[in-house]
């Protein structure tokens, strides 16, 4: 078997499309398709079902995927043990992050890293969801919980706080609540209940047990924009909402604390490009530590 064929197979399995896999690997569609065919010929089995709207794995493909991922992990480990760890700081690193942290904090602070390493390519995916590191959906993931299992390296990045906010226009029209019970008389905003990807994001219950939202948005940045428009009251990140002069913190005694963690697969531990990006994220988070938890300053 050819290792390049296996790399293409892994990319196709993870993206569900030959074209998307080819783009990520920097090859053309025809080459990617030929490599899949070459691998299937070598194994004597069909691995991929080609459809007009993408690709799926056959039963044999699912079985081989587990072997291919172990081979990938061993290859990365072998490169690290032999000292071939991307010393030039080049290649692609994909970062998965919650949208609040990814858009409002991380995106403006990655340009300096690219400027220092012009051969480094960063892919930031700031969406409200969890990422599978074993399946290489991301090289580095920012999470709101420390992973409890898996061959993962995790470190606490920074603590952060959240508070209740409303816009000045909303408060001028509806008044400010004086207690958590008063929130029942106000328009409330929160996450879409069945799309919450982590139990730690169910923080409204810490303020009001029967919090009932009239407006649900599955995005932290979306909630911030809704509050800014005067749509209602929501629990927002202090490091985002606290900097907006149009937003007012209400019931400040109700302050919620959470933590961000940075996680990557242990097979990438010694890859210089991953280590460099991880160290940069850790450094900028620590430099702005007070920004994340203003009540501690």
Provide structural commentary.
The structure is a single chain. By secondary structure, this protein is an alpha/beta fold. It has 3 domains: 79 residues, Winged helix-like DNA-binding domain superfamily/Winged helix DNA-binding domain (Arc Repressor Mutant, subunit A, Orthogonal Bundle), CATH 1.10.10; 98 residues, Periplasmic binding protein-like II (D-Maltodextrin-Binding Protein, domain 2, 3-Layer(aba) Sandwich); 99 residues, Periplasmic binding protein-like II (D-Maltodextrin-Binding Protein, domain 2, 3-Layer(aba) Sandwich), CATH 3.40.190. The protein has 11 helices and 11 strands. Strands 3, 4, 5, 6, 9, 10 and 11 form a 7-stranded mixed beta sheet that branches. The protein has a two-stranded antiparallel sheet with strand order 1-2. Helix 1 crosses helix 3.
Measured as a percent range, the helix fraction is 25-40%
Top-tier CATH class of the largest domain: Alpha Beta
CATH superfamily of the largest domain: Periplasmic binding protein-like II
CATH topology of the largest domain: D-Maltodextrin-Binding Protein, domain 2
| E-strand count | 11
Q: What is the succession of H and E elements?
A: HHHEEHEHHEEEHEEHEHEEHH
């Amino acid at each position: 078997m050819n290792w390049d064929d296996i790399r293409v197979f892994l990319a196709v399995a993870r993206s569900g499309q030959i074209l998307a896999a080819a783009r990520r690997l920097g090859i053309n569609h025809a080459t990617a398709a030929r490599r899949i065919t070459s691998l299937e010929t070598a194994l004597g089995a069909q691995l991929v079902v080609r459809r007009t709207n993408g690709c799926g794995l056959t039963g044999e493909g699912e079985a081989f995927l587990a072997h291919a991922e172990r081979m990938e992990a061993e290859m990365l480990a072998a490169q690290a043990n032999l000292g071939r760890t991307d010393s030039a700081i080049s290649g692609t690193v994909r970062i998965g992050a919650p949208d609040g942290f990814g858009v409002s904090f991380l995106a403006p602070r990655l340009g300096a890293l690219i400027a220092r390493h012009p051969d480094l390519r960063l892919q930031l995916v700031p969406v409200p969801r969890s990422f599978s590191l074993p399946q290489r959906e991301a090289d580095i993931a920012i999470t709101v919980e420390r992973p409890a299992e898996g061959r993962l390296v995790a470190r606490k990045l920074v603590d952060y706080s959240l508070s209740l906010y409303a816009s000045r226009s909303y408060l001028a029209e509806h008044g400010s609540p004086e207690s958590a019970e008063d929130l029942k008389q106000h328009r409330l905003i929160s996450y879409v209940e069945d799309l919450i990807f982590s139990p730690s994001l169910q923080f409204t219950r810490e303020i009001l047990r029967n919090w009932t939202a009239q407006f649900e948005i599955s995005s932290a940045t979306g909630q911030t924009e809704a509050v800014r428009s005067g749509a209602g009251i929501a629990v927002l990140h202090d490091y985002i909402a606290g900097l907006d002069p149009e937003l007012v913190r209400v019931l400040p005694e109700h302050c919620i604390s959470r933590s961000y963690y940075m996680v990557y697969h242990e097979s990438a531990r010694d890859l210089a490009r991953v280590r460099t990006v991880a160290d940069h994220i850790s450094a900028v988070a620590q430099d702005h530590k007070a920004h994340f938890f203003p009540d501690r300053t």
